[in-house]
Amino acid sequence: MLKLRDYQVKTIKQVQQSMLHGHHRIVVQQPPRTGKTVIMAEIARRATAKGNQVMFVIHRHEVLDQAIKAFKQQDVDMSLATMGMVQSLTRRVNKLPPPALIFIDEGHHALARSYRRIIDAFPRAYILYFTATPIRTGHNQLDQISDDIVVGQSIQWLTKNGFLAPFKYYALSDIDRSKLRKAHGDYSTNSMDQAISHQIYGNIVRQYQRLASGKQAVVYCHSVESAKQVVEQFRKAHITAEEVDGSTPAKQRDVIVQHFRNQQLTILANVNLFTEGVDLPNVDCVIMARPTSSLSLYLQFSMRCLNPRKDKTAIIIDHVDNYLTHGLPDDDHDWRKAATTRDKRKKTGTDNGPAIYQCKYCFGVFYRKDMHGNRCPLCGHELRSTVQDYKIVNVDLQEIQHRKSIAHKIMTSNVMANVAGKSPGQLKSLAELQAYAKLHGFKPGWAYYQWKNRRKR
Ligand SMILES: [Zn+2]
Questions:
Q1: Whose CA is closest to 266, among 289, 245, 288, 287?
Q2: pTM value?
Q3: What spacing in Å lies between the alpha carbon of 321 and ligand 1's midpoint?
């Protein structure tokens, strides 16, 4: 049996408290990589020890075996546990022994019809929705199927207390975000093909060598084709690299993953695979070459490298500006509010995170509060005079084309002409910030966010 960490014990107590207050359907928020399966297993052990039937509903096949292993390890009475994937449980929902307690893993999916069928079939059961990100795209939120939420420790707290590794975050903008289009809740593969610069592949290797040379890295790609390109470029630079995706035969995938675990392989590129579940303990660097509009995926990608080890600092390299959509991975979120359907939310101002800056010298991204005076906390460069320092790192064809398209936009607008070549810190009005945002393809909220923060200063 595993001994639980203090914060895991605290979460279990909070769940019990919530049940004592009469709640039956509770969202349990826990950040990625902090052991939510262990928490579920311990609650299941206690429930089955009292003779209660439990059910465990999971979203992805790869994770099921690990969950069963964790439940057994924690001494759950498996004769009282029904564990399976949502699709298979839904199909035979009428034949299943009625559970007193249902665990739903990746609970942010639970508004989908397949889950609803299970939830509705057992109206008297307690239900715990476990998720790192209790939020959905669209109108309805998890409060539609829950009556309380228990929020876990923040990522900053977990880092400060040694449960997650600290990280450095760099952003490289090898993408034209105006070309991204959404389909089925995330960007379409076709639009990602359009948006991602073909120069990205060489740049991924150059930036890896500059920022994380020698570290084991997982690369998140948007297509099999791009993952293969990434591998080819790394091999050209004599760095061992392999690619796995949904079509890789299971045996071959296991061999590659094992090589990575044994540190015989430095770079592991993948397409939609290493999100939840698959255990890769020694990842020290994450390279994002795939944009996502899903906060859940963003946190799963970026936090993949945060397993702690003595003196480790993880490196996150974001080639597709995911931070402009989601902030940094350790931004605090108001999960209670996020889980509330929009028209029920109290109006409490906008939900912007803390001010984020980017150093144009090292491309590091960081909170303003972490700045050392006017200096970049990652490279020590003075930030005010950095506007023109872009060229020091990598001026390649893509950068030049990017400048050309900016030049064209400038010629068609006075305000834009006025802000071109300035840094955000030199902009004097909201209109200028908006023009700057447009010029650089930032989302419109960026300008308001900068303006608001500036006025607080
Ligand atoms: Zn810097």
A1: 287
A2: 0.80
A3: 17
